[in-house]
Known about the structure:
The protein has 571 residues and is α+β, with helices and mostly antiparallel strands.
Amino acid sequence: MKKNLKLFLMAWLFILVWVPGVFAAGKSTDPPKYGGTLTIFEIAPGINPMSWDNADWVWKHGYDTGFYMEHLLMGDLRKGPRGTNQYDFQEMAWIPPEFVRGELLQKWEVKKKSLQVIFHLRKGVMWQEKPGIMKARELVADDVVYSMNRVKSARRAMPNHIDFIDRWEIIDQHTLIMHMKEWVADWQFRMGFGAYTAIQAPEQEKAPGGASKWGNACGTGPYMLTEYKDGHSQTYTKNPKYWDSEIIGGKKYELPFTDKVVMMLIKDEATQIASLRTGKVDLMMTINWKYVDDLKKTTPQMQWKRVLVGINSAMAMRMDTKPFNDIRVRRAMNLAINKKEIIDSFYKRNAELYTYPFPSTFKEIYTPLEKLPPSARELFSYNPEKAKKLLAEAGYPKGFSFRAQISNQSQTDLDVAAMVVAYLARIGVTLELEPMDYQSWLSMLTKKTYSPGLFFQTGHGTPIQGIRNKFQTGQTWNTSMMSDPYMDKTLEETLTNPNLTDKKVNEVLKKLIVYGLDQAPVIILPQQYVYVVWWPWVKNYYGERRVGQQRSGPIHARVWIDQEMKKKMGY
Length: 571
């Protein structure tokens, strides 16, 4: 018996030491405290909302509406740092299927052979009441069909994104079936937690001013949008009839905890840091690495988490325009840039060399640098002499001149672009930068009216969506205008084949990523690390940043403020 007890204790010791998060669910055991205001800087605090309407298809929609609008699916935070710690919820969009839970859905059933997904909505989810806009009522299947059809038929709809839907069939108020024209392997992202598929009430569109007016915004989420000040802030007020809850210390608590969340809109980094340092801001979801050492010295009480920015930085080279229609020129442009020197001298080693089009966190489809074919691996090296030779072979022995647009939103991006200008000058290439405000830059991108070059940042997306956005013909974010028959054909055949296992799909995607990278469609630039920082009075927060594309609202709904601690600390 003593031997069995010893084995039993050793087994439990093994679990406690080696199995992360077994007892971590609801790490905060202090009783939550309701009330107060959570003031935050989001990931892009200098960009105003672009639209409050789903059907406008703007990438930032989930960022601004994610506090009051909900999706069919979301990331399961219980499997993140606050729980089993299997996933960190840092990516801007991608959540592997095993870490997804229902949000407005109670459950769903996939019928591959019949190309159907059966959705079972949660019962008792209520639309927020908004005087003059809509009365409180239950969310029903008709709302989902209305919202999805409206987004699908929108003038600005992303090509091929949700065209796979054939029709919707309503079984009853809480059950509906999505019928597909063809199987789509990443339907969960496209329909469940992507940027454009929040469920929007028909009353919002019918109200005076339409769905794009912020005063008409309403939803089913934890907060209600109650104030918007252009260039200053967005205020979200607690929804007292919100349906979701959080288990902490074995006890169930209704959400959200704070009375308000104020999302500050300030472009100037120095002002952002001052607001954080003085306690006017409780939580900052992205802070540049260059401020961290000083802040750690002056305010050592702060909590920190280092994360790799979930986006790619690059300069697109239009493959439909001379001189970048020649792969030798595109390769030369990459060989001319000393990427390792940028990491060491500019980023002070706070950046990674190889994250395009995906970083190593996408382990199922990632090929390590040392395992890339030599031609692709070479793109990350510095060889100006070979760059000159390639230019001469392509007919540009004396180089050439071109222009590239860049958003002036980030000083870091402008500084790196200036370094690119200097490097290219060494091989006889003259690059003229054209800085412009973000809205003008984005308009130029979507209309494809930019010059042969375009500096851009784009999220990794999901494995499938990221490949489509960067390499597939006609996609909005295919900034290089790449059009490759092999890429297009192989990608579509893979995504629409219901007989392929997830493992087989990933194998094909892994090969396509290397193939697309090897075409050198962009000047690949290093990707920096940033920090998430919060004061110790911010409770039940573990550095998570996204539960779906650009959505942090459900994360903040689980945060509470220890106001006594804040006061004792002098803030």
